[in-house]
Design brief:
The protein is mainly alpha-helical and 140 residues long. The chain folds into two domains: 67 residues; 39 residues, no CATH class. The radius of gyration is 19 Å and the shape is globular. Helix 1 runs antiparallel to helix 2 and helix 3 packs antiparallel against helix 4. It is built from six helices and two strands. Strands 1-2 form a two-stranded antiparallel ribbon.
């Protein structure tokens, strides 16, 4: 029987914003995903979160200060509002470009097809046959 894990991850989301300021958000996200999805770690337990922070080289004392504060609260609230506005109802949820979203588990083949179709749509949306174009950093 598969086990369903439901934990309050509010602090984890705020810590990801903090880790981003230290260029460690990718490492923290990978550690959190592994802990949650592979090991079944309860990410609502502060000690578990702090151990993961320390494991990837983040100061657990500072992480605890972030958890005990309201730091990055507004960032997470904004993420929730954006997610609700584009119809996110479950995880995992993927957003490609500004208008292509999909949720749930997908096989590798399905995922490749969805991304391929999304990239085709994005390329069509970026058609510059009218002479106007933008650089990859958004300068038009």
């Amino acid at each position: 029987m598969k086990k369903i894990l439901i934990y309050n991850t509010w602090d984890v989301h705020r810590l990801l914003y903090w880790a981003k300021t230290l260029d460690k958000s990718f490492e923290l996200e990978e550690a959190l995903f592994n802990a949650y999805f592979c090991l079944g770690t309860d990410l609502s337990v502060e000690k578990n979160i702090l151990d993961l922070c320390q494991k990837i080289g983040l100061d657990p004392n500072i992480a605890q200060n972030v958890i005990n504060s309201n730091d990055y609260r507004e960032n997470v609230i904004k993420d929730i509002e954006i997610s609700e506005s584009i119809g996110v109802r479950g995880l995992p949820h993927f957003v490609v470009g500004k208008n292509i979203t999909f949720s749930g588990y997908r096989s590798i083949g399905e995922f490749e097809t969805i991304l391929s179709n999304a990239m085709s749509k994005i390329k069509n949306d970026l058609d510059t046959s009218d002479g106007k174009s933008c650089s990859t950093d958004g300068i038009c």
